[in-house]
Amino acid sequence: MSTRAVLEVIALDVEDAVAARAGGADRLELVTDMAADGLTPPAGTVAAIRAAVDIPLRVMLRLTDGFGAGGARGLDRLAGVAGELRAAGAEEFVLGFLDEEGGVDLGAVERVVAVLDGCPWTFHRAIDRAADRDTLRKQLDGLPGLDTYLTAGAAGGVDDGLPVLAAEAARSGEPGYEQRIMVGGGLRLDHVPALRGAGIEAFHIGGAARPGGWDGPVSVAAVARWRSVLDGAGGV
User: Fold this and answer.
1) Contact 206, 35 (CB under 8 A)
2) Which structural domain range is residue 105 located in?
3) InterPro entries, per this entry (predicted)?
4) Strand partners, 150
5) Which of 74, 55, 49, 52 is nearest to 63 (CA)?
6) Which helix (H) or strand (E) holds 14?
């Protein structure tokens, strides 16, 4: 395939960011507290990483574990934090909120997106917990800045979600399906051929970039291995 695949790597700090960039990452997702599956990092961390690397950064907007916005008070906090992060130099974001029934919390998403004022953003793996993925996509269609869905295709991860990912990739260009699919969540190198064959061109790794686990740093070599496979320069 002639299109270069996008490789996004989770970074917790400047050391991670520099290593991911050196290994060939195209973009970083900035988070903190992976015990809670990734929360919003401090504005100071975002500013330090922005000063250290020259690749795009997407900053998580998520203040508590789970996929709720935290009610009116939590939403006020999220909107305030989004403004602070923009002031710190953040220009791209990651977010996603569901209601108690598993539908998209459209009011919460719209409130935060309004603060972002057109910045590009990813709707994250909340889609994999949604009651109806198709309905969620169509409800979000047309929101300013939404250009990516980060998804494994299923709550259980890519092993379970491969058929869904392929089916959604085949609908590219339909209403609600114009956005890029970025695959992440239990993603392994052996998934890459089937995903690339389905036309998917964006991949997201976290633990796969850290041979020592989440207590260890991002490995340049591990990221470079993914870069090589995605570029077709190495076997899976």
Assistant:
1) no
2) 6-230
3) CutC-like (IPR005627), CutC-like_dom_sf (IPR036822)
4) 182
5) 74
6) helix 14-23
Q: In a 3-state reduction of DSSP, which class is residue 70?
A: coil
- Judged on CB neighbours under 10 Å (0-12, 13-18, 19+), 230 is buried
pLDDT digits (tens, 9 = 90+) for 159-215: 999 999 999 999 999 999 999 999 999 999 999 999 999 999 999 999 999 999 999
Residue 102: phi, psi to the nearest 5? 90, 10
pTM of the model: 0.95
Rounded CA separation 90/119 (Å): 9
Question: How is 87-148 classified by DSSP, letter by letter?
Answer: HTT---EEE--B-TTSSB-HHHHHHHHHHHTT--EEE-GGGGG-S-HHHHHHHHTT-TTEEE
Please check whether residue 236 lies inside any domain of the structure.
no
Q: What is the CATH number of the domain that holds 30?
A: 3.20.20.380
Coil/strand/helix, residue 8: strand
CB of 11 closer than 8 Å to CB of 29: yes
Say if CB 67 and CB 100 are below 8 A apart: no
- Give the span between the Cα atoms of 68 and 101, in whole angstroms: 11
In the chain, the number of structural domains is 1
CB neighbourhood size of 108 (10 A): 23
Does 127 map to a domain?
yes
Quote the DSSP letter at residue 208.
Answer: G
Sign of CA dihedral 91, 73, 129, 134: negative
